[in-house]
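Sample entry (556 residues):
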Amino acid sequence: MTKKWWHDKVAYQIYPKSFLDSNGDGIGDLRGIISKLDYLKELGIDIIWLSPIYKSPFVDQGYDISDYYAIAEEFGTMEDFDELLAEAKKRDMYIIMDLVINHCSNQHEWFRKALADPDGEYADYFYFRKGKNGNPPSNYRSYFGGSCWEPVPGTDKYYLHMFAKEQPDLNWENPKLRQELYRMVNWWLEKGLAGFRIDAIINIKKNLDFPDFEPDGADGLAGCWKMVESVDGVGEFLEELKNNTLRKYDAFTVGEVFNMKEGELPQFIGENGHFSTIFDFSAHCLSDGEHGWYDAPPIDFKEWRDTIIRSQLEVQECGFEANIIENHDEPRGVSRFLPEYAQTPAGTKMLGTISIFLRGIPFIYQGQEIGMKNAVWNSIEEYDDISTRDQYHMARHAGLTDEEALRVCGKMSRDNARTPVQWNDKENAGFTTGTPWLKVNSNYREINVESQEEDEDSVLNYYRRLVKVRKSQEYKEVFTYGRFVPVYQNTDFIMAYYREDENQRILVVANFGKEDEELELKYPVKRVLLSNKNETETPEQSLKLESCEVMVLECM
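Predicted structure, serialized as tokens:
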């Protein structure tokens, strides 16, 4: 494998709206991010991914872009962004941005021109199609519910939107549009951006016949992803994107890729793959309901363990994936992946340890490093997220009571990850001096950065140690390139693996159960690198682990 500059890096995702507000308007901003670069440096972060900061009406929190070349005034100015780039560079840190090019906003100049002339040049920047017998062109349900087709006013045509109706899909079959997008990508890379997280990218390839599919819900519609899964050829678009932009700058790219076909992984992240890496969502898919959040199954430990192991074994044959516990689209990992008895500082450290030492690029999401949890939501009105509202109504239509539907949304809502970062125990958790755009989690007095800074045994200080061990000169090579080898798979509640190469062997072992566990050691232990229970004594023939205990051991 050719070594790349990003292989040994640790990344951190910032959701700017909720990170830190510097001017009291209740919305996080670029100056807030600049003020916390030293905090992130101390955590050991190399790459910072910013969720969208482009100009936007914010129907879907900035994933509906109205101007790809402008910063949303809520977040600041282009001068603020240039300062962020410069300050990050001083600290040997890299900035990557979200690249949202499957769709744009209905307020974008292109779409406005398309509506003004539905038979003109700009209409072909989108998918304008005639209806069938007075109905939409096909029976697709959007990711946010309802038909994927919206009428074009004053015509017999519809336009396609796989997300909200305010997010029309861009027509990648149009070479002129593609060149417009490549020009924009190069403009940002010329500025000094290190790369992109690439949003919903598998959706850019459409089945241009737009065939109907067997309905999979009471609404008579079929999930639009079935159309995505029915078509080949997305790789040609991705290679063209890479060759016209990313490759020229040695840019780091992480793709948001669902619906990949069997055997395609090497094409996406192999030696000459479309992207540097893609996110591993395999564990998150375990709580996908058949119809929605309301029938989402609980996470089963053995299934979770087997899923991570299977994914790790598959991916190490061809490249690197990006490992996450949570992100802006998922509920908090502590609340999702840990049983109630383990939702403690010890359990939080255990979950973090398992994730950070996996093979691949670790991504930490803002607040994860202090163990932020899901909030308590009292009514559907408290939510901002468009997807949560859709899932609430879906649950009610399926027969759930208001209380039951709210409980479902409380577990799975994206807004759980979007509540403001908890900086201290003062008003609004130190996030803003104004009224926060989304409510602050009520547990901010117990869980916040300031109190954890002062506690040597806190989750925050443990995360700092985790990253430090992973990036240390002594162990960086084995944690970056060493093989992942699962162990103790015949146990009920142990998650364990070796990271090993020709020179070193590290055992990462955790007890997710309620009871103590004793394990026979396969190799003699040289030293304890890390323990969430401050255990320093070197074990000999066997290892005893308390409930929610994790250890990282250097073995012979």
